[in-house]
Structures are given as C-alpha cells and as structure tokens.
Amino acid sequence: MLSIFRRLMKNENGATAIEYTLIASLIAVAAITAMSTVGGKITNTLTAVSNNLN
Predict the structure, then answer these.
(1) Residue of 3, 6, 14, 45 with fewest CB within 10 Å of its CB?
(2) Rounded distance, CA 54 to CA 44, Å?
(3) Are residues 8 and 17 in contact, defined by beta-carbon separation less than 8 angstroms?
(4) Alpha-carbon distance 50 to 2, whole Å?
C-alpha cells in the first residue's frame, strides 16, 4: 500500500488523482451534513403535521 502511495506521489497524474479524491471527500462530507440537517427539519415538520391531525 505504501509503495502505491509513493508511486502516486512521484507521478503528477497521481497527485491530481489525490486532489480530486480530497475534493470529492469534502463534497461528500458537506452533502451528508446538509442531508442530516434537512432530514431533521423534515422530521420535525411531519411530526408537527401529525400532531395537528390528531
């Protein structure tokens, strides 16, 4: 595994691949955070609607 990482660091295409991987990871973390926040708000809204219907 370490030898693969070393080869990627020597090769400029490998460095670009690592950069794209980091960007994709940051986007994924932001998306998960946003979905959690929106999911919680939707749950609260649907709970309020359910309580008003009862």
Answers:
(1) 3
(2) 16
(3) yes
(4) 55
Sign of CA dihedral 23, 29, 35, 38: negative
pLDDT at 37 over 80: yes
The pLDDT assigned to 14 comes to 66
Integer Cα distance of 6 and 41 in angstroms:
45
How far apart CA 30 and CA 18 sit, in angstroms, is 18
What is the dihedral angle through the alpha carbons of 15, 21, 24, 26, rounded to the nearest 10 degrees?
-90
